[in-house]
Amino acid sequence: MIEHxxxxxxITSENMALLEIEPRVDEKKHTVTCWIAGPVGKPFVVHWxxxxxxxxxxxxxxxxxxxxxxxxxxxxxxxxxxGVRVGPREERPFVFSKIDPDDAMGFNDKATNKNVGSIVLExxxxxxxxxxxxxxxxxxxxxxxxxxxxxxxxxxYGETMPTAEQQPTWRIRPHDPKSPGPFVTFTFRYRxxxxxxxx
Length: 199
Prior knowledge:
By secondary structure, the protein is mainly β. The chain contains no helices and 16 strands. About 30% of the residues are buried.
């Protein structure tokens, strides 16, 4: 678990927290970055906790630069995301996988080099204003390869599974208009076990 500014985040696979290696805090940018070993073939879950800010927050998850809906927290508590929603009652789980030789090179969905190989959780402090419809669902990309080699670990998405029914969301505005950006950002840079990681 990595922590900063009253929030924490961690990633589990098969109900076990993945070890965070060399966590580094940037106090100026309010970010925490670490390395994790992605167990190939295993699904994973992104978790986060508000330790008692007493302020509503909205989370945003980026897998290799691909934006996945997060969740709201209401001043305290814990949330998680197991995958990307692809229907009103369906999702596809996050899965650590290997890049196949025929996976396309280059970048998809305007991902940049710094995004590839990263799971990013941004948390913004917000004020809810009014309820508004359902978020649009979209299919995730097959794989965002970047310039990684065949056999390297990547994130793909598993078979469609049932999940809780999609709920309406809220229109929001920044809690502090003078500081509308992320309150804290957690970045997990994933690699194949043994690929420069002392695991």
